[in-house]
Write a structure and sequence with these properties.
The complex is a heterodimer. By secondary structure, chain A is an alpha+beta fold. Chain A is built from eight helices and 20 strands. Chain A has two domains: about 230 residues, P-loop containing nucleotide triphosphate hydrolases (Rossmann fold, 3-Layer(aba) Sandwich), CATH 3.40.50.300; about 110 residues, Nucleic acid-binding proteins (OB fold (Dihydrolipoamide Acetyltransferase, E2P)). In chain A, strands 6-7-8-3-9-10 form a six-stranded mixed beta sheet, sandwiched between helices. Chain A has a five-stranded antiparallel beta sheet with strand order 13-12-11-14-20. A five-stranded antiparallel beta sheet of chain A has the order 15-19-16-17-18, with no helix packed on it. In chain A, a hairpin with a 5-residue loop joins strand 12 and strand 13. By secondary structure, chain B is mostly helical. The chains are: A alpha+beta, B mainly alpha.
């Protein structure tokens, strides 16, 4: 097993489109790293470059100590799980799993042993003679996993492996993947656009946007201190509220546009005295009495999820009517048209530079 | 669920299928039954009288060494034509599947020969291989092979096989290319990661997935070689030299219209009809069962 390293990796397609604008990072041996980002951000391209399915335009990718830029996919000793599973439809489940081993001239009894072992781990024992067409979505997903683990590769690459499953199965498989990766201790790179998957699976997270790694860090670090406006808006569901405002004259707070009282949380000194973007997560707003409130919101729409309710509203005295989302306890009943007085958890207010979107610290 | 439309009255559905039925009746059922009837008759040399002889024509046919020779020759010709045209088409399609620049132009050019009439295709190859003026014959002579399909039966056979295959390559190419493009790219990528080199990927992943297409084309090509190659043979060798390229469909013509053995010729076409029906039934039954994923 081995770690992975990206050194100034760039990708430009022949038509001039630049997909990856320089990625530098190292993945430790046995680490589970999730690359998350919206579609078209280059996350799959990056994964395919590690697999050897896309060429590297500039920079270097290393698996262990070896530069792999010029190696064929076959020689990189990695295994990949595809979004559509890419099972060989004309082969039995056994043959699907054994194919990679046969190509590497593994002895027959060794193949049988490894496939049986993987089938045991993945509860596929009874299905080894079936064709992929005779399996359910979850079973196919397991076969795809099995095909990866029998190879005992240096690293697993996952390309949105759960996005074709229904919601319940997805949660279940998510846990299984995590458990399996812990047990095997294989370095893994996992691409997804689903931030819940990203948060739950990752030891470390790479948030990508438009070919740039906006932030790399542990999931909760990123949640607690998003480095840019993009990351702040992408990680966390429902998304963070962004309220533009101006730093108060004495620097002790911020005057939010459309709110006639000062938010008494001091922005960092680096903010200066100009415009500022304030980010507050829906779960860090709390209903209080009018006197204690930092802002008031007119309720527009309530999504009751049971355990909690998502309240979508507009700032009560906002000229432009900035939208605000609040997460409330599910027991609390709120009706449309109601005015909610909200206080802010002072340790959970984020300040960003409105010009370059960077976090102010 | 299949959706079935139910007509309330009988008139409209009959009207809708009538054109097809009329065409089938006039151009297939009627001539076919005529041939069936004719194959049981013996006609005198001047075409004045005919006599009902039951299966005598068929018995004569299968005890005629010339006919059996022609049968064997047809099997060789069909196998070679189908094999050659399928092989070349598969190779071209596999290459075209990887072409990125000018792919459309390349494909269009390969499809062109299909638009050429069989007789014209025959004449084209006939000229290229003509022993006195042909480019290819000249080239072969330069390589030390004395090509002459006027005298050498093997050369003549190779000429008709070449001409017949050339025309069919386009058709096979189109189907193979469509088949190749229907194979998900991720399967090939998965195989690449699984350690299979391009050649191995082709034989263990791509070709098996292409086999339904290949099987369909095999039957179509055999039927083509059996029945649609009359024009090519007629334009190049006229069945010669010494009947070395007289395949069954050509023998029907030469025995019937030149030899004026109408009954025998009709019996031959009935045999051919039986062959094509067998092939078609075989294909439908087989395709429905085995080669589908």
């Amino acid at each position: 097993m081995a770690g992975l390293e990206f050194i100034g990796v760039r990708k430009t397609y022949p038509n001039g489109v630049q997909a990856i604008h320089g990625i530098d990072m190292a993945v430790a041996d046995g680490e589970f790293v999730v690359i998350v980002g919206p579609s078209g951000c280059g996350k799959s391209t990056l994964l395919r470059m590690v697999a050897g399915l896309e060429t590297v335009t500039e920079g270097e990718i290393r698996i262990g100590e070896n530069r792999v830029n010029e190696l064929e996919p076959a020689d990189r000793n990695i295994a990949m799980v595809f979004q559509n599973y890419a099972l060989y439809p004309h082969m039995s489940v056994f043959d699907n799993m054994a194919y990679g081993l046969r190509n590497r001239r593994t002895p027959r009894d060794e193949i049988a042993r490894r496939v049986a072992e993987a089938a045991g781990t993945l509860q596929l024992e009874g299905l080894l003679d079936r064709r992929p067409g005779q399996l359910s979505g979850g079973q196919r997903q397991r076969v795809a996993m099995g095909r990866a683990i029998v190879r005992e590769p240096e690293a697993f690459l996952f390309d949105e492996p759960l996005s074709n499953l229904d919601a319940k199965l997805r949660v279940q498989m998510r846990l299984e993947i995590k458990r399996l990766q812990r047990a095997l201790g294989t370095t893994s790179l996992y691409v997804t656009h689903d931030q819940v998957e990203a948060m739950t699976l990752a030891d470390r997270l790479i948030v990508m946007n438009a070919g740039v790694a906006e932030q790399v860090g542990r999931p909760l670090e990123i949640y607690d201190a998003p480095a840019t406006l993009f990351v702040a808006g992408f990680i966390g569901s429902p998304a963070m509220n962004f309220l533009p405002g101006t730093v108060a004259d004495d620097g002790s707070g911020a005057n939010l546009d459309g709110v006639d009282r000062t938010l008494l949380v001091a922005p960092p000194a680096s903010a200066g005295r100009g415009r500022i973007m304030v980010g507050i997560r829906p779960e860090h707003l709390e209903p209080v009495s009018r006197e204690e409130a930092a802002m008031e919101v007119v309720v527009e729409l309530v999504e009751a999820l049971g355990a909690d309710s998502l309240v979508h509203g507009l700032l009560a005295d906002g000229g432009e009517g900035a939208a605000v989302t609040v997460r409330l306890d599910g027991a609390r009943r709120v009706a449309a048209g109601e005015v909610l007085s909200l206080a802010v958890a002072p340790n959970h207010v984020h300040f960003f530079d409105p010009d370059d979107g960077k976090r102010l610290a | 669920m299949e959706k079935r439309v139910v007509f309330s009255k009988l008139g409209l559905p009959i009207l809708l299928v009538a054109p097809q039925i009329v065409i089938t009746l006039v151009f297939f059922i009627w001539p076919a039954s005529q041939a069936l009837y004719q194959s049981l008759l013996l006609e005198d040399a001047f075409g004045l009288r005919s006599q009902f002889v039951w299966l005598d024509n068929f018995i004569a046919l299968f005890s005629d060494p010339h006919y059996l020779d022609s049968f064997a020759r047809t099997v060789v010709f069909s196998a070679a034509t189908a094999g050659l045209s399928l092989g070349v088409a598969l190779f071209l399609a596999a290459m075209a599947d990887r072409v990125l620049k000018g792919a459309t132009a390349y494909r269009t050019l390969i499809v062109w020969p299909y638009a050429v009439a069989p007789a014209v295709a025959g004449v084209l190859w006939f000229f290229m291989f003509n022993p006195s003026i042909g480019v290819l014959a000249y080239l072969l002579k330069w390589l030390g092979y004395d090509w002459n399909h006027y005298l050498d039966g093997t050369d003549a056979m190779m000429l008709v096989i070449l001409a017949a295959s050339w025309k069919q390559v386009s058709y096979n190419f189109l189907f193979f290319l469509a088949g190749l493009q229907a194979i998900p790219r991720s399967l090939v990528e998965a195989a690449a990661i699984d350690g299979a080199r391009p050649f191995k990927r082709f034989w263990t992943i791509i070709f098996p997935l292409l086999s339904p297409t290949a099987f369909f084309l095999l039957v179509v090509n055999i039927v083509y070689a059996f029945f649609d190659t009359f024009g090519i043979v007629h334009a190049t060798t006229s069945g010669g030299p010494a009947q070395s390229t007289t395949i069954l469909v050509y023998k029907v013509f030469s025995d019937g219209f030149i030899g004026l053995d109408l009954g025998g010729s009709a019996a031959q076409s009935v045999v051919l009809m039986a062959v094509v029906i067998t092939l078609t039934v075989f294909q439908f039954r087989y395709i429905e069962r085995k080669v589908a994923y």
